[in-house]
Amino acid sequence: MSSAEGAEVLIEDVTRTYPASAGPAAGVFGVSARLAPGSFVTISGPSGSGKSTLLNVVAALDRADSGSVRVDGADIVAAGERQRAQYRLRVVGCLFQDAPLVGELSIANNVVLPGLLAGAERAAAARRAADLLERVGLAGCAERFPAQLSVGQRQRAALARALMNRPRLLLADEPTGNLDRATGRQVMDLIASVQAEGCTVVVVTHDPEIAEAGDQHLRLLDGRAQG
Ligand SMILES: Nc1ncnc2c1ncn2[C@@H]1O[C@H](COP(=O)(O)OP(=O)(O)O)[C@@H](O)[C@H]1O
Ligand SMILES: [Mg+2]
User: Fold this and answer.
1) pLDDT at 1 over 50
2) Helix axis angle, 151-163 relative to 122-135, nearest 10°?
3) CATH at 139
4) From ligand 2's centre to the CA of 122, what distance in Å?
5) Does the C-beta of 48 come closer than 6 Å to ligand 1?
6) Band of the pLDDT at 4, cuts 50, 70, 90?
7) Would the CB of 185 count as within 6 Å of ligand 1?
8) Does 111 reside within a domain?
9) Band of the pLDDT at 21, cuts 50, 70, 90?
10) Is residue 2 part of a domain?
11) Which residue, judged by its Cα, is nearest atom 7 of ligand 1?
12) Which of 101, 89, 88 minimizes the C-alpha distance to 157?
């Protein structure tokens, strides 16, 4: 179940701005950080401080206006769309506040999906999905559909799916934001276990306890890194 070695991420002078009709532009401005392989990095800051913008740039879901994000040496900002799609599929795993599972697919098939997209053989992908669902405590839910699960179960299923292709970088944007404390702790424990296997993990959080627990804690304010 262990992941390959965690990715090193070098964020250099990343700017991504959204034009504002009134007032100053929003986004992130000139953010730099080095995320060490296998580290647990937390990002905090008030609402609107640019946490999701930064994470989406690192996830290659969005592209920075300028600056670079080198993941194990390859700059995903400068990369073409094909390379960015491969990166999203094979290198990075994402977890969001609302687990965007495919409603028409069973939980098992949701988890299998990235494996099939990456060219895995179906039986092997199904075995891995079953292992992952067991690991997140959802072995009994494999044939259910997302709407039949609780919010916390859906979030654990989304984590299993994010791990399907053995990412070297896990990016989580307020993964416990919609969960009660006990369920949030379960999800954080699972995320910690992913880091323990060597994966580099980034968690955006409002929870000061989680933020302080990081090997590295990046604070954003008005789109800029503090201290
Ligand atoms: N798609 C968008 N279009 C316009 N403005 C945006 C967009 N996404 C984010 N912003 C603005 O950029 C700033 C940072 O947003 P965001 O990264 O979502 O902050 P956070 O995740 O820290 O709450 C906010 O002012 C937000 O309104
Ligand atoms: Mg956000």
Assistant:
1) no
2) 130
3) 3.40.50.300
4) 35
5) yes
6) low
7) no
8) yes
9) confident
10) no
11) 18
12) 101
Q: Of all protein residues, whose CA lies closest to atom 18 belonging to ligand 1?
A: 52
Structural domain total, the chain: 1
Q: Is 167 in the pocket of ligand 1 (CB under 6 A)?
A: no
Atom of ligand 1 nearest to the CA of 174: 21
Please work out whether the CB of residue 146 comes within 6 Å of at least one atom of ligand 1. Answer: no
| CA gap 33, 58 in Å, rounded | 11
Give 42 Cα–ligand 2 centroid separation in angstroms: 13
Q: Is residue 34 part of a domain?
A: yes
* Count of residues making up the chain: 227
Reported as a single tens digit per residue, the pLDDT across 116-139 is: 999 999 999 999 999 999 999 999
Distance 205 CA to ligand 2 centre (A): 9
Domain residue limits at 182: 9-226
| Distance, CA of 3 to CA of 195 (rounded, Å) | 9
Nearest-atom number in ligand 1 for the CA of 28 is 14
Rounded distance between C-alpha atoms, residue 51 and residue 223, angstroms: 8
Angstrom distances, CA of residue 135 to CA of 57, 138, 171, 197? 29, 8, 19, 13
Report every protein residue that has its C-beta within 5 angstroms of ion ligand 2.
51-52
- Is the CB–ligand 1 distance for residue 45 below 6 Å? yes
At residue 25, the pLDDT reads 79
Per-residue pLDDT averaged across 154-180, rounded? 96
In a domain, 75, yes or no: yes
The 10s digit of each residue's pLDDT in 22-33 is 777 799 999 999
- Residue 34 carries which side chain, given as an amino acid letter? R
